[in-house]
């Protein structure tokens, strides 16, 4: 039997790297939007939740290609900022603004706050759209705090300010393998792997 193809419907190359690693044991061929020549497709993410936006992205690419498509909508939720940047994480302070600037801005907003007052989480909603119209969803969360300074070179985006108190490190200071084991994305896509296995077998 041919190995099934799944398109990972994201334009974010860092997400593709992490998702490939998380799903490496699955007997499927993962293809990115770039592999499909669809990297310039612009999908309006006008949902009100991570899950809604993940479904919008997965369905759009599934309808366009007729293939099974997985999408990730994720972001950083900072309690002291009323949940910002949340679903606007990629667009926060402007899509083209550097993460060095965005991260320093968030640190500045939390000046004077200590410990639990700095609580934050990364959330990832994963949606998988099937050509038969069915959509599977899974969510993963990792709890942490906003660090007092940027630290670490690994990962991407807000990783240098996402501090894990139990490790004494940010998610930019741990290895990619360690991040995938505990991260929002690792959790969401591991759940999705099981849902999809059941779906494809059943
Ligand atoms: P696609 O929509 O094409 O998937 P995107 O980067 O625009 O790419 P999102 O709309 O889901 O994706 O925005 C997610 C943003 O949240 C991402 O750009 C980062 O700023 C942040 N983010 C998500 N997961 C992260 C992680 O593991 N580490 C650091 N920052 C993360």
List strands and helices in order, with pairings.
Elements (H helix, E strand, L loop, with lengths): L3 E5 L4 H10 L5 E5 L17 H16 L2 E11 L20 H11 L9 E11 L5 E12 L15 E3 L4 E2 L5 H7 L1 H18 L1
Parallel strand pairs: 1-2, 1-3
Antiparallel strand pairs: 3-4, 4-5, 5-6, 6-7
Helix pairs in contact: 4-5
Inosine 5'-triphosphate binds next to strand 3.
Task: Write up what this structure looks like.
This protein is globular. It is α/β, with parallel strands linked by helices. The model has no long low-confidence stretch (mean pLDDT 96). The protein has a single domain (4-201), classed as Maf protein, CATH 3.90.950. It contains five helices and seven strands; from the N terminus they run E-H-E-H-E-H-E-E-E-E-H-H. Strand 6 (162-164) and strand 7 (169-170) form a beta hairpin. It has a seven-stranded mixed sheet. Bound molecules: inosine 5'-triphosphate. Inosine 5'-triphosphate binds next to strand 3.
Q: Give the helix tally.
A: 5
β-strand amount = 15-25%
Distance between the termini: 16 Å
Tell me how many strands there are. 7
Oligomer: single chain
Which class best fits the helix and strand makeup?
A: alpha/beta
What does this entry show, briefly?
The protein has 202 residues and is of the alpha/beta class. It has helices at 13-22, 50-65, 99-109, 176-182, 184-201, and strands at 4-8, 28-32, 68-78, 119-129, 135-146, 162-164, 169-170.
């Amino acid at each position: 039997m041919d190995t099934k193809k799944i398109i990972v419907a994201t334009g974010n190359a860092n997400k593709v790297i992490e998702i490939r690693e998380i799903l490496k044991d699955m007997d499927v061929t993962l293809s990115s939007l770039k592999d499909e020549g669809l990297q310039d497709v612009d999908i309006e993410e006008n949902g009100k939740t991570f899950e809604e936006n993940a479904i919008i992205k997965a369905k759009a690419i599934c309808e366009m290609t007729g293939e099974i498509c997985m999408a990730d909508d994720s972001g950083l939720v900072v309690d002291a900022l009323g949940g910002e940047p949340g679903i606007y994480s990629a667009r926060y302070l402007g899509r083209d603004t550097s993460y060095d600037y965005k991260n320093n801005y968030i640190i500045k907003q939390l000046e004077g706050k200590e410990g639990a007052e700095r609580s934050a989480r990364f959330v990832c909603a994963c949606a998988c759209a099937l050509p038969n119209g069915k959509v599977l969803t899974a969510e993963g969360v990792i709890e942490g705090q906003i660090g007092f300074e940027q630290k670490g070179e690994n990962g991407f985006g807000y990783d240098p300010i996402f501090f894990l108190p139990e490790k004494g490190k940010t998610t930019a200071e741990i290895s990619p393998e360690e991040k995938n084991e505990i991260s929002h994305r690792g959790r969401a896509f591991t759940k999705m792997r099981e849902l999809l296995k059941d779906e494809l077998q059943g």
